[in-house]
Amino acid sequence: MKKFFLLAAMITLTNLYAQMSIIPKPQKIISLSGNFTLTSGTKIFNTSETEPIKNYFNEYLKEELGFELSRTQNSNEKNSIIILLKDVNGIKQNPEGYHLLIDNEKILIEAINIKGLFYAIQTVKQLIPLTDKKSKVVLPALEIFDYPEFKWRGLNLDCCRHFMSKDFIKRYIDLLAYQKMNILHWHLTEDQGWRIEIKKYPELTKIGAYRKYDDGTVYGGFYTQEDIKEIVNYAQSRFITVVPEIEMPGHSTAAIATYPELSCTGGPFDVGTLWGVYKDIYCAGNEKTFEFIEDVLSEVIELFPSKYIHIGGDEAPKDRWQNCPKCQLRIKDENLADEHELQSYFIKRVETFLNSKGKEIIGWDEILEGGLAPGATVQSWRGTKGAIEAAKMNHDVIVSPTSHCYFDYPIETTDVPKVYSFDPIPDELNEEEAKHVLGSEGNMWTEYAPQHLVAYRLFPRLTALAEVLWTYPKERNYDEFATRLQSFYDRLDEMDVNYTYEIPPLTFTESFDKEKNQFIIDVKVNQQGLDLFYTTDGSEPTTKSSKYSDKIILDKSTTIKLGLFRKHKQVGETFEKSYSLSKAKDKIVQLISSPSNRFEGGNPLILTDGIRGGNNYRSGGYLGFQSSDFEAVVDLNEPTEINKITVGFFTASSSLVLIPEYVEYFISDDGVHFESIGKVKENFSIKDPSWKRMDFYLTTEKLKTRYIKIFAKNPQQIPEWHPAFGGKVWLMVEEIIVE
After folding, report:
1. Fewest 10 Å CB contacts: which of 66, 207, 368, 422?
2. DSSP for residue 69
3. Contact predicate 426/440, CB 8 Å
């Protein structure tokens, strides 16, 4: 019996801890004895000022628990929730702070501003246990004093590279609010798409919102002004400010494809299909450019009540300005030193216009170049140098460096412990200068993240950033945070939110038994709490697939698909590893072309090691040949019957990694005199930005040969419209397979 009570007590404590695993962690939390039982009979007390909070909470209760709370006029009634606006001690007079008290008789929520009440409700939502028994729920007795350390806690969502639906954006507004974040930085114009309706310029969304590929595919979409009003109103109801970004003078291909007269050269242009930095930008010497921008911004400011308009300012090449008579005349007339000062002139002129409309500008840290606009807020992304410089000039800054805040980067580059270690205040700032740090944002650029992959990129990294910006713990204990994160995952599961790993999840150790002609693959799961399942038949792994417990033995060419699962839900995307047991396995390769040492140290043995390159050429398994063809000879050691030769190449057009124009295969008995047996071409458009491996294979009648030569022609040249025009083309080569 004692064991039973001990077990029951342990379960109760475990459940209590899970309920108190709040993210972001409150500034001060005191555990009290007892609990409060919330039922349909619980009453709610509020004033007319706090009616929106009561309505919001009741909507949540109805959806999650199936009941709403009726109102009471008595603020002292037992079994009630009391929502009050009043002066509160212990929250530093922070307008987003709150005091929450839960005891046996009531839930008391107090704040000096309605925002604080809203964030208190987010905490209460995390305290409500996840249970099937929804007629009544038990909340632990506790007292919380809580407030955010930073006023700018945001997400930058790029809806240009990939379009996001209106409902998707509203869902993310809810997810931001749940984590007590308060800014949606909405990236609305880009080289690859113009996403906002401008009534004076309807062609922007007829032409600029859609990009066309060589295979006839058309991709795009845009938000009507009614869509935007709906989203902004929805965000306001969640106390989230939507800050629009209208890019200028660079990242403007979609606009100048629509109105080429706004460029320096007059075009014509296509809406961008590739990622990167396009050289054609708005013409700074053309008055029509500023007329257009002011017209656009006049409509934008009517849609967004935000104090700020983000005007971009990043990655604006000066090539066209240097050769543009109008831009050079502008430099002369305005007594500017160079094109950098011309960009400063551009930004300052736009700032003056927006200031006249009661708005302030935010720009990426490039707006520092050539002189900073007087009232600009700087968003520092290229490290923290821009933030330091701007703050020392008494400008407000948003600190979101690539090192910690770019969530489009793979987990191998930016994992959750790294995000959690982030300090938005650079050490170089003194106490007064540090006051200019408004906060930070997670940046979700979507070149390689269409809508269905965004959640995998953001969670749980965004959750870690949310705690950094709200709680700003001086001493970071990642293990303690990770423990609370396990309970938070349950809540993400309840909301049907996908998420990925906290750290690089798998370590592969591969060996080959020559006597048995077998691959031996040992896989280590690096993150606790995850189970590994895999398949070898090409199907997607599920919890009904083989569960990994020991080494995987392969005695034939096989593709393994591996999935990590938490309970019954897959975490992150499926891993895929391919192995080849061909006649070229471990055979000597003589490279006639010289590879770069940047990839696999230029070691030719990786071309016949039987381990195929994956879906990222930067992760290993590929040899790189820049500005040169690929030519290699494989020695099969003895005359061997063959009927198929395959070589894998990678394509990432935006990064100047292209497939060959063609691959030609030769055979020889002596390694000196070679005979061509065929040439292979693959249809692929340079406008396609996909990252993928492509196999060039040749099938023949059975032949007998000892030596095989492969020649792959580097395309060398790229069209002038390509954002990386002038750069050197790479061939990325992986496994040579002979069957």
Report:
1. 66
2. P
3. no
Report how far apart, in Å, the C-alpha atoms of 555 and of each of 296, 396, 518, 521, 606 are. 63, 62, 5, 11, 19
Q: Where are the domains of the chain?
A: 19-146, 152-493, 506-579, 588-738
Classify domain 19-146 at the CATH topology level. Answer: Chitobiase; domain 2 (3.30.379)
Residue 335 φ/ψ region, left for φ over 0, alpha for ψ in the -120 to 50 degree band, beta for the rest: left
Is omega for the bond preceding 268 within 30 degrees of 0, making it cis? yes
In the CATH scheme, what is the homologous superfamily, with its name and number, of domain 152-493?
Glycosidases (3.20.20.80)
pLDDT tens for 36-62 read 999 999 999 999 999 999 999 999 999
Q: Which residues contact 272 (CB under 8 A, 6 or more apart)?
A: 190, 191, 192, 211, 253, 254, 278, 723
* CATH top-level class of 588-738: mainly beta
C-alpha 454/C-alpha 446 separation (Å) is: 8
The answer to whether the beta carbons of residues 386 and 363 sit under 8 Å apart is: no
- Pairing relationship of beta strands 360-364 and 308-312 according to DSSP bridges: parallel
Summarised one tens digit per residue, pLDDT across range 303-351 is 999 999 999 999 999 999 999 999 999 999 999 999 999 999 999 999 9
- Pair 392, 429: CB distance under 8 Å: yes
Whether the CB-CB separation of 663 and 694 falls below 8 Å is answered with no
pTM (2 decimals)? 0.96
- Point out the residues that are catalytic: 315
